[in-house]
Amino acid sequence: MRVILGLAAAAALVGAPALAADPLRAAADAARDAGLKDPTAYQLVESISTDVGPRLAGSEAAARARDWGVARLKALGFSNVHVEPFPITAWARGAEEATLTAPYAERLAILGLGGSVPTPPDGVEGEAVVFRSYADLLAAPPGSLAGKIAVVTQGMARTDDGAGYGAANPIRRSGASEAARRGAVAYLIRSLATGVSREPHTGALNYAADAPKIPAAALSVIDAQLLDRLAAEGAPIRIRLKLASASGPATGWTVVGEIPGREHPDQVILIGGHLDSWDPGTGSIDDGAGIAIAVGAAHVATAGHPLKRTVRVAMFGAEEMDFTNAAFTAAHKAEVPGLVAVGEIDEGADNVWKVDLPEGAGERPQMKTLAASLAPLKIFVSPDPAKFGGSDIRGLAAAGAPVVVFHQDASRYFDWHHTSEDTLDKVDPVQMNQNVAAWAAFLTIVGDSDVDLRPAPALPTAQAKP
Predict the structure, then answer these.
(1) Of 199, 319, 320, 347, which residue is the catalytic one?
(2) pLDDT tens digits for 122-135?
(3) Is there a single domain that holds both residue 32 and residue 75?
(4) Which helix or strand (DSSP H or E) is residue 340 part of?
(5) For a disulfide at 190, which of 89, 105, 131, 153, Cβ 3.0-4.6 Å?
(6) Which candidate, 312, 257, 261, places its Cα nearest to that of 76?
(7) What does the DSSP 8-state code read for residue 426?
(8) Do residues 175 and 271 both lie within one domain?
(9) Is the CB of residue 312 less than 8 Å from the CB of residue 342?
(10) 319 classed as catalytic
């Protein structure tokens, strides 16, 4: 019996040093486990969805969101909480209406695209030319759409990494200018969506400087399918469109807070999400969830004690219309040498399944510790280098800041993205806390170590002797 007990005691001691010998792993695991249970993130997304609601950049609701962000960060004990204002062009949606007038009359479900110019007060009506693909529109010769309404009905693929959205994005971003170059008087697209419903999906467009600006809107998937069937039958299709949007100069606000590092306050890990949202829904998954995860993870990772390095959280003020990046980069570019890592959370609240690190960083011992800590969450650290880290940090990335990407399961995100269905009920608290746990483990390991995530400098090449 004494031998058995002795062996059992020895066996227990064999397992115990695994964590005891690696305090960083123990701390990361503790932060991970705390993140799985901490209510902070869900409380935040619930509050912004309920107390603020939809918040177009430059609107009165955006100012309310600014004040909300400041109050929440202060209440959670963040330091240096402040607002960074920057100029934007605010866009506001007015009355919108689209009607099929031939071969029969039927109301179509639409949402104007962000940044679209309005139609004349009485609207615009014309023959609709339906293109089954964006490539078909681009192949149309100049002048072929004179006086007509161009309609692109190409669908978007459902993927777990959101790649389908990236592939389809030029249809919404650039299509209006391409249609205008061919003479179109208005432009409609099938919503960039993975679901099939009568809820249209909005989103921003970008007008080219060398093309006329024409009004543009997104059709619901079901109405786009209707136009496809009518076009296939050879029916004469006419559409009347009325959009009453307005634009003007305004101010955007990014809200920032920190948990200063206890040893290296000038070394900063920056994570965040965007504070603005589109107007049809409450911006719960896009991007109330991202803000909540970032703040919740920072709160969990620093609970009871600050890390060696500073954790900074940013609530970016105008992502949807592409204004934050330039302003935030200009304000913080000089800080890039002190940025240890930057990351943006903007893909909803469903589980993280993969983490991309800067090239070569995965070989650092601390990142191997991260991989081990994240494995129980069914997250793997990928050998692929991080690429696009987020719209609001791309300027910092281009300036040399090391980017990390936590890939979330996006397979259902684009069912509701940019619609009236972007509401709190789409946020799964359990999956949201898996995000918090993953980020809290990352912040703990990077914040409480001296790991350098930047690629190692290239070794000088030997010079041939003359």
Answers:
(1) 319
(2) 999 999 999 999 99
(3) yes
(4) strand 339-344
(5) 153
(6) 257
(7) G
(8) no
(9) no
(10) yes
